[in-house]
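Hello, quick one for you while I still have it in my head. Could you read through the record and tell me how the tokens relate to the sequence? No rush at all, and the record is pasted right below.
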Amino acid sequence: MERKTTLGFMLLLLIIFASDVAVKRTEARECSTPSHSFKGVCISDKNCEAVCNTEGFTGGKCEGFRQRCMCTKIC
């Protein structure tokens, strides 16, 4: 009886660790780069995103002390 309990516990741990690894593999990284065509101080994330979309990126947001427009995409 004790051996069945130990095997069941080991199987449960294996399932938990396997599912955790599968979740981490599906998470995508987001890369960012400064916009080449955005002019001025970045105040609105929506304006930044619109400019970044014209540059071929999937998103954009204002970042940093200098409030620069950073374009983002999935790497």
Summary: The CA atoms of residues 7 and 55 lie 56 Å apart. The chain has one domain: 2-74.
